[in-house]
């Protein structure tokens, strides 16, 4: 079709996972359950940490921000998909598609940077324990979080403004359950060279640099732990990192798996299915990973539950 000047009238269709009517109730129930578990788990973690003064430390301050980002990250895609299934409509407006893509990039970037900041926090705690409270003071913690929000916002704004320059055909079918940047660029009817360059450069810079920072931090942590003489001391030091390391591994492994599987199969549908791992499953599991592997969080949850029961 001739793209012309029809971007404002473009009809975007989110194809989702399957067009089989018999599978729609199953998909709806599955994703509604995962979404509710994600909301409940992350909000409960935020409330438990906020209500316990013993957990008002840098590590848990970053964890609360991560839980908030995960909640918003999932909320940018799943509610729209559930609504489309319920109304038996695949349509999303051009403005709605841009908004969804903006917030998806914003909160996914925020996740990456917060995981990097949390790795730095663990590095300071283990490698410089005597100076931990001096280095990780409230001013620095607030600044680190502010910088992560700022960089994520500017990156998302840049990608969205770049996409505004593209023209789309009158009817655009997106083989995904949300408006994903790469899919949007591929489906544009105008030249996308500059968009692809910005997207790949941003992925290398804003994806590679945080990963390098995490690997560097854990390299120093392993080196510091290996210098501890007692086995009990080594276990105690490493146990403070296991939850964060599990979350980092889950996030990066699922994200990498999505792009490797998409590149191997060349199938947009399989990419949509694989992307469920880091868009839905990872945010859902994060609060449980921190709760099950952290005694302080367990105690805070029990205390919060008791307080809620007494008030009730």
Automatic annotation (TrEMBL):
<keyword id="KW-0472">Membrane</keyword>
<dbReference type="InterPro" id="IPR017452">
    <property type="entry name" value="GPCR_Rhodpsn_7TM"/>
</dbReference>
<dbReference type="GO" id="GO:0004930">
    <property type="term" value="F:G protein-coupled receptor activity"/>
</dbReference>
<feature type="transmembrane region" description="Helical">
    <location>
        <begin position="272"/>
        <end position="292"/>
    </location>
</feature>
<keyword id="KW-0807">Transducer</keyword>
<dbReference type="Pfam" id="PF13853">
    <property type="entry name" value="7tm_4"/>
</dbReference>
<keyword id="KW-1003">Cell membrane</keyword>
<dbReference type="GO" id="GO:0005886">
    <property type="term" value="C:plasma membrane"/>
</dbReference>
<feature type="transmembrane region" description="Helical">
    <location>
        <begin position="59"/>
        <end position="78"/>
    </location>
</feature>
<comment type="similarity">
    <text>Belongs to the G-protein coupled receptor 1 family.</text>
</comment>
<keyword id="KW-0716">Sensory transduction</keyword>
<protein>
    <recommendedName>
        <fullName>Olfactory receptor</fullName>
    </recommendedName>
</protein>
<keyword id="KW-1133">Transmembrane helix</keyword>
<keyword id="KW-0675">Receptor</keyword>
<comment type="function">
    <text>Putative odorant or sperm cell receptor.</text>
</comment>
<feature type="transmembrane region" description="Helical">
    <location>
        <begin position="237"/>
        <end position="260"/>
    </location>
</feature>
<feature type="transmembrane region" description="Helical">
    <location>
        <begin position="98"/>
        <end position="120"/>
    </location>
</feature>
<dbReference type="GO" id="GO:0004984">
    <property type="term" value="F:olfactory receptor activity"/>
</dbReference>
<keyword id="KW-0552">Olfaction</keyword>
<feature type="transmembrane region" description="Helical">
    <location>
        <begin position="132"/>
        <end position="154"/>
    </location>
</feature>
<feature type="domain" description="G-protein coupled receptors family 1 profile">
    <location>
        <begin position="41"/>
        <end position="290"/>
    </location>
</feature>
<dbReference type="InterPro" id="IPR000276">
    <property type="entry name" value="GPCR_Rhodpsn"/>
</dbReference>
<feature type="transmembrane region" description="Helical">
    <location>
        <begin position="26"/>
        <end position="47"/>
    </location>
</feature>
<feature type="transmembrane region" description="Helical">
    <location>
        <begin position="197"/>
        <end position="216"/>
    </location>
</feature>
<dbReference type="InterPro" id="IPR000725">
    <property type="entry name" value="Olfact_rcpt"/>
</dbReference>
<keyword id="KW-0812">Transmembrane</keyword>
<keyword id="KW-0297">G-protein coupled receptor</keyword>
